Amino acid sequence: MTSVGNNYRTAPNPQELEISVFGPGFGECVVVHFGNGEWGIVDSCLDPDSKRPAALDYLESLGVDVEKSVRIVVASHWHDDHVDGISLVFKAAKSAIFVCTEAVQTADFNEILSAWTGTRFLSGGSGVDELHSIMVELKKRSSNTDFPPPVRASVNKLVWERKTPPNVIVKALSPSDAAVLAATARLKYLSPKNSKLRRRVPSVSPNDASVVLALQVGEHRVLLGADLEVTKDAGFGWIAVVNGFDKQQPKHQGFKIPHHGSPTAYHEEVWNQMLVVEPWAVTTPFVFGGTRLPSQADSHRILRHTSKAYLTAPPQPVKFRDPNRTVEKTVNEATLAAHFVPGRYGQVRIRKSVDAPVNALWGVELFGNALTMSDYVRDAHYSTK
Amino acid sequence: MVTHFIEMSASNRIPEAEGLEVGIIGSFNPAIFHPEWFLRQKLIGEDDAKEAKVNVVGSEVSDIQICGIKLVCINDRFSLGTENVSLAPRMQDLLLQIFTLLPHVPISACGINPHAHYVINNLQYWHKIGHTLAPKELVWDDIKQLEKPGMLSLSITAMRQGEFPGQINVRVEPSHRFQPGLFVQSNYHFPLPREADHSGATELLLKFVKSEWNQACTMPRIVADKIFEKIKPDND
Amino acid sequence: MTDLSQISTFDIRPRWLQELGDGFKRRPDTKQLFAGSYDGGNLLTREFADDEDFDLEATLKAANIVTAAEWVPQNITAAAENFITQFQRKPTRVPRVRRVNTLPQARYILLKKYEGFVTSRKQESFTARLYENTDSYPVLEAEFDLEELSETDRALVVEGAPLVWTIGYRYEGDTRKRESVIYLRRLPPWKDKEIEHAKQEADELVRDIRWK
Q: Other CB atoms closer than 10 Å to residue B165's CB: what's the count?
């Protein structure tokens, strides 16, 4: 992945807070520097060039000792279509706490895990390969008290904190108890007992059980929105998060926009009540079939809230090509559409000194195919449905 | 992450013909294997059943063709075969379905045996491959009774460790279908443990077929690719 | 045994013997017709009833061994006459088999194979994620018209359903046809015992994990 200028491999200084967002892949990845050389990784995707987890590639390029310096690894979704490579990340981060949704505790979830054993010989695995690998690693670590125990995240749970300055608090704002119950109820239908069909485990929608994280480093706060969506029920999704948010506490200066900026994850009150005026906002794109997220309309909506909005890459598929002319011709003839996924890829890196005032600007760098949302909206080349 | 794919050749060379045969040694009742049985068990549809060909179905031998796949069963040997390698996944599914329905059939061994023919347009290169795989200078050229010795066939056997230990046997010959050409056949042999009872043996067979199928089916391509990689034509 | 070299030269390939079943075997109670080529090519044998009116060409083609055979006039030598008398058959001509093409009539050249699964199904189409090999990344995502599938296959198109897509050339004799086939896999369904065993494995896996 190309970088802008020579700064790509420059690590943040110990007093610098960093949020880097990578994507798209089969998933996205957020890498956080909490200051003092301590890092956190939220979700995972692969770098299309190296085919390794983007987080590992990035941290190694900065000279970071992943084994010792990564403190938390979070899987905000349970479904591995959004956490490609996270098991490799966790295996490398031997000092890290693993965090995932509370929904994994149930017997129904174990049934889904068991589906892996029946379909592991199929291409594409069973859909829970990553989580299975994480469980195997957790089991290995469980007999050694040197490893910190994993955390199941649910609303208002403190996931990690550092009491030495700059102080760090990482708190989960979701899933709500109701969301956990609903998610586990849906999982029942995916159990092999119900369908008997040997297939890859399908995705669960909506993403009620996603883990939204509120990061606080010193006086600076950032909201990582995972893929949480908005539902009609106030006990779920963003409505529950906003309702549960302490309006007395300071608002967040930055926002990892959930679900690729789609309208299903947009809740105006998140912007009004949980974010400062003109926060920075980053999202990764999504391309699937005829769907391109964020759409132009989505982008306009986001730009109404902040001009400091960025995309890690435009939602543009990469056309299918093959060195064999017959194959390329046949694929194009036999399909309604064919493209490579993920498509274009990039990184948005945002840094700020922990000692800087809350209203000071953050430094933004764009790497690879990353661009500002304004450029995306303006440039017809990227126009989407 | 994703696992268990057929490793398609990285080489530019594609076989001119490929086939696949799976053989299982055991104790069978050939009379079962009639297209009607497959239809009744919902392993094939009505159309497939209509198009099926029956050469013979009897207590001693059955020889039928369903879904483009030849099934031959005599008392102690069951085999599926095809010269259309695109049917390999269908064959795998049929095998899994048949032995899921017949869990108590005594089975002692299984072999996955693909083969591939490659055209080699350059006669000198063809000779070079033969000379490199089976050098004549040291022994064969020195036996005066042998005039112009040439490689007729080369077989290699190797062990296979892991969950399904056994052998991999590879045979390389001049192709009898394409001249000059190269023929590669492999045999992924899995002898089932003697101590396994009948249903245990079938379960093991199913696991073997699921786990090793893709790797076994691509052995000829892997071997041929290595030959073409290591032995280059002289004008390269 | 009669010296057949008086009639023809021949070279019997072991593989063809196998395909012929008994191979080159003379049984006194049957009549065998020998076909030979005169240029040192290949000999095939077939058993025919004495009065059978057969079509040699069709028979040999059906045996998938040669694709051309023809009758040619033949000046029958004395040795051949003796032979024919011995077998009490009096053909007025001897066939010459020409090995024109020993390829089986059908073959297939596989150009590309994708394995993957269905990612979504719509009213008239479905999408699938497809992998060429272990290292495939990015991977191919394609949308297909459901009409391309048979009715039976359409019923199998559900999210997560495994499938294989092959692209290649099919040969029927000298005719080559480009072929693209989507195969929805028919795997045996989960059995109760298997589910139970898999669940035990999963329970065993998570049992010792101490969550905070």
A: 11
